[in-house]
Write a structure and sequence with these properties.
With 382 residues, the protein is of the alpha+beta class. 31% of the residues lie in helices and 14% in strands. Among the domains are: 6-100, Rossmann fold (3-Layer(aba) Sandwich), CATH 3.40.50.720; 102-136 and 194-287 and 319-359, 2-Layer Sandwich (Dihydrodipicolinate Reductase, domain 2), CATH 3.30.360. It has helices spanning 6-22, 35-39, 53-65, 80-92, 107-117, 151-155, 196-200, 202-212, 299-311, 319-338, 355-358, and strands spanning 46-49, 69-72, 97-99, 124-130, 174-175, 178-179, 222-224, 235-237, 243-245, 258-263, 266-271, 274-277, 286-287, 342-345, 350-351. Strands 13-12-11-10-4-9-8-7-14-15 form a 10-stranded mixed sheet. It has a 3-stranded parallel sheet with strand order 1-2-3, with helices on both faces.
């Protein structure tokens, strides 16, 4: 295992050794502060990346180049070019790659995708996808870095001097007495370190929408931010006329994350543990409470990855899928920050006559020395 927090590495080591002992195995868990050293081992076939988003690209690319198959938590990356670089590395090195968009392995979402693709609610006209708010500027006060955390290594390629240590970014734990993290690491909610709910949940809900309407590997051509002129919700327009908006998908639970597909013959709503359709003959309404963290330990999704490592087949959420969904999320946030529409060509992976958008950090991010992004060392390096 590898972690920049020694205390968290101690916790993980203990979990692994306890599991090994319970299965009559000799307890062993090798530890690395720097994951690059772990990648040098020839007896490791696959890597799981559960790092902050700004580390995904380097960890994934180095892993692919080291001949490892990769399970990478979503969203795929922090920027558009990082996602493209990961995709190139995975394909060039012929690696099995699974993005942690676990909903693709969940029965209710698989059923929704199947029904929409089969035209059961007709031609799709609109999609309501509730994910949540975009990120905000970092406003946490600086605090002293604890001795158990290598914060300089946590920063990695981040070059913004405003990013400093605060426990919300790297939630502390205690081993004795045992106290786990009390919140999700808050780096995801700030512009300088993450992409907010737009990517945190967009990598799930927008991802399912893309799959259902056959847009994996592609995406919308125009992004219009909420508040621009008379635009009530973040709006994404596809070349085929479908319009997706970030808004409540069900009136009786407006804050819940989920999706509603609206066709010319009916509608379909789907979320974690819930699916409902305008035509009751297509399915029975199903709704169950999903426990916190249940999707984060999705056995079917991880099992699909392991099966594909063995068979060398494509995973259910391959790198190309994660890349196009990541691009969508980043473009939505670029439009929000520029406070105007942004036009994008999914075929050429480029903006339409928009130098300001091309220079945005969520398209290409200048890394802190000595880090360099393979394939895209410069903003125009395609």
């Amino acid at each position: 295992c590898s972690d920049v927090d020694v205390m968290k590495m101690d916790r993980f080591t203990g979990i692994i050794k306890n599991w090994q002992q319970s299965n009559n195995m000799n307890p062993r868990c090798d530890r690395y502060e720097f994951f690059e050293e772990m990648l040098e081992r020839k007896d490791i076939d696959a890597i799981e990346i559960a790092l902050p988003d700004h580390w995904h690209a380097l960890a994934a690319i180095y892993s692919c180049e080291a001949g490892k198959d990769v399970y990478c938590q979503k969203p795929l990356a922090y920027t558009i070019t990082e996602g493209l670089a990961i995709m190139r590395s995975a394909l060039d090195n012929h690696r099995v790659f699974q993005v942690g968009s676990q909903q693709r392995s969940s029965k209710e979402f698989q059923q929704a995708i199947e029904l929409v693709r089969a035209g059961k609610i007709g031609h799709i006209e609109k999609i309501y996808a509730k994910v949540g708010n975009p990120p905000k500027p970092l406003d946490l006060p600086e605090e002293a870095v604890p001795a158990n955390l290598n914060f300089n290594q946590w920063l990695g390629p981040l070059n913004d001097p405003k990013v400093h240590y605060h426990p919300d970014l790297c939630p502390p734990i205690s081993l004795d007495p045992k106290v786990d993290e009390k919140l999700w690491a808050a780096w995801r909610w700030y512009c300088e370190t993450g992409n907010g709910y737009t990517a945190d949940w967009g990598a799930h809900m927008f991802d399912i929408a893309q799959a259902a309407i056959g847009m994996d590997g592609s995406g919308p051509i125009e992004y219009i931010p909420k508040g621009y002129k008379d635009t009530k919700y973040m709006t994404m327009k596809y070349a085929n006329g479908i319009v997706m908006t970030e808004q409540p998908y069900r009136e009786d639970n407006p804050s819940a994350q989920g999706i509603q597909f609206v066709g010319d013959k009916g509608w379909l709503k789907v979320a974690r543990g819930y699916i409902e359709c305008s035509d009751p003959k297509l399915l029975n309404r199903e709704e169950k409470k999903v426990g916190e963290g249940e999707y984060e330990v999705s056995s079917p999704h991880m099992q699909n990855f392991i099966d594909c490592v063995r068979s060398r087949r494509k995973t259910i959420a391959p790198v190309e899928v994660g890349c196009s969904t990541n691009t969508l999320c980043c473009l939505a946030n670029i439009a929000v920050e520029l406070k105007r529409p942004v036009k994008w060509d999914p075929a050429t992976l480029s903006f339409i006559d928009d130098k300001e958008a091309e220079n945005h950090r969520l398209y290409w991010y200048e890394y802190r020395n000595p880090y360099t992004l393979r394939y895209f060392p410069r903003a125009n390096g395609k």
